[in-house]
Design a protein that fits this description.
heterodimer; A: Rossmann fold; 2 domains; 3-stranded antiparallel sheet; 10 helices; about 40% helix; B: alpha/beta; Rossmann fold; 7-stranded parallel sheet; two-stranded antiparallel ribbon; 9 strands; globular; disordered C terminus
Chain lengths: ~280, ~200
């Protein structure tokens, strides 16, 4: 080892890596949130912004506070998990669901859908609106899960700042909408509150793709821009859960820049709408 | 010039905003076949427009140009473009990582996010290049490249279509080199040449 000739910058970064590792372990042991399988680059960046937010000079300082001030953990968790989504993000994904998957769903007596990593609920409400338009919502149950209880509360409330609605409306229109987005929310005091009748078909629940197991059989798993935050081992775990949860010929939707190519489950799913990253569970051989 | 010699460069990160398409059209073709470094590019673009840049640059470049995919292992001598509406990061391996995290300096992809993550992985084997642009994204990223011991280059402000971005970066740290586009192109040729010498020619 050339520790003697190590530059101060290199020494600094080695210490950061050690502290980073220790912090993630501490969070796991104390709070049972498992970030050990998260992709390092994004998580490192989130941890760095948390250091600034909490005014800590080193990660050891942050770890000390996380260990001894339970009140700050929920705030840190927000930093580590916050994702910014949109309603009908990537409209062509929803158009593909509408044009190619919904006709198959119409032959089913009932539908169960799992939105894994639902964040603030944008995707779950989008699917509920799409299914309402297609006449399927009355016989549908959507499970929307996330690890962050604070985010789940926000998702359950279904309230979004009004300045986001313009973008949502354009996305909705581009998804092949047959109704107007304004049919589904009430605007008041700078906020848009989504209709309770949508929420009646959504169950928001705490679930971790890193530590929990299968909880239902579903016809569609929509898990977009979640796998990018996982390393390959955790990605494989999540994909195994999806595979086990899906019914025969069930569908999996992932993010527009995500791929199963680098996972060990490449064979377990067939591309169904390749461009829009919709896959179908391969029949057991 | 401080930092490592050009022949130690394993990664090149390039950031550009307003005026960037033109600047990159001049610069990316400068990398010769056999360049051993991997090249990562963040260019700010209108978010709602599907990017055709991969095609545009492919036609002009000796190196393969690809839109970055999540978890893709980094292949030397490849130009990776950040997809629109995602941050591009370099993760350990090295492999590519994407994120849908919040905008940084009103941008996704953000230059800071790419540069900081690449600095963590490539340390002093990184060349960071900041070009024309109208916002302050990239300044902190280039500082991170500098602090990790990498080489930092900014486009000469007078020659940049919009100089805000490079001026912000220059206020934060003194870059190793301040060059007009043809000077940066010459530097890229040197990076490619040195690497080719080192590995005994084009990668087999």
């Amino acid at each position: 080892m050339d520790a003697q000739v190590e530059s101060p910058e290199t020494a600094q970064s080695r210490k950061f890596e050690i502290e980073f590792h220790l912090l993630i372990e501490a969070i796991y042991y104390l709070y049972h949130y498992d970030f050990r399988g998260y992709a390092a680059a994004s998580l490192r960046r989130r941890v760095k912004t948390a250091m600034v937010r909490f005014g800590c000079q080193t990660l050891s300082q942050l770890q000390d506070r996380v260990m001894h001030e339970p009140a700050i953990f929920p705030v840190l968790l927000d930093h580590l998990t916050v994702q910014v989504s949109e309603m009908f993000r990537d409209p062509s994904y929803f158009r593909s669901l509408r044009d190619r998957v919904v006709p198959i769903f119409k032959t089913y007596p009932s539908l169960k859908i799992w939105v894994a990593g639902c964040s603030a609920g944008e995707e779950a409400y989008s699917l509920a609106i799409l299914l309402r338009e297609e006449g399927l919502l009355p016989r549908t149950l959507i499970y929307a899960t996330d690890i962050n209880p604070h985010t789940l509360q926000r998702a359950e409330a279904g309230v979004y700042p009004i300045d986001r609605i313009a973008g949502f409306t354009i996305n909705h229109r581009d998804s092949g909408a047959t109704s107007s987005l304004s049919d589904y929310y009430t605007a008041a005091y700078g906020r848009a509150i989504f209709d309770k009748s949508l929420r009646d078909h959504i169950v928001f629940s705490d679930h971790s793709l890193a530590t929990d197991s299968v909880f239902a059989e579903v016809q569609l798993v929509s898990c977009r821009n979640v796998l990018i935050y996982f390393n390959r081992a955790l990605q494989d775990r999540a994909l195994r859960l999806f595979h086990e949860s899906l019914c025969r010929n069930g569908f999996l939707g992932i993010g527009s820049k995500e791929s199963l190519r680098f996972s060990s489950h490449d064979e377990a799913f067939h591309p169904f709408a390749r461009e829009d990253r919709i896959y179908q569970k391969a029949s057991a051989t | 010039m401080s930092g490592p010699a050009l022949n130690g460069i394993e990664g090149v990160v390039i950031g550009a905003s307003a005026g960037g398409v033109q600047a990159l059209s001049e610069l990316l073709p400068a990398f010769p076949q056999g360049t051993a470094a991997a090249i990562f590019v963040v260019l700010h673009l209108p978010r709602d427009r599907p990017s055709l840049l991969t095609e545009v640059f492919s036609r002009k470049c000796a190196l393969e140009v690809r839109e970055a995919q999540d978890k893709e292992p980094v292949t030397p001598g490849t130009v990776y473009l950040a997809p629109s509406n995602y941050h591009l990061l370099v993760d350990e391996g090295p492999q590519l990582a994407l994120s849908a995290d919040e905008l940084v300096h009103h941008s996704r992809p953000s230059i800071d996010v790419l540069f900081e993550s690449a600095a963590d992985v490539y340390r002093n084997h990184l060349l960071g290049v900041l070009l024309t642009g109208a916002n302050e994204d990239g300044a902190e990223g280039l500082a991170a490249v500098h602090d990790a011991g990498g080489i930092t280059v900014v486009q000469e402000p007078q020659t940049a279509q919009v100089s805000t971005m490079v001026r912000c970066a220059m206020q934060l740290r003194t870059p190793d080199l301040v060059l007009p586009l043809d000077g940066i192109a010459e530097l890229f040729r040197a990076v490619g040449r040195d690497a080719a010498l080192r590995t005994g020619g084009p990668l087999g």
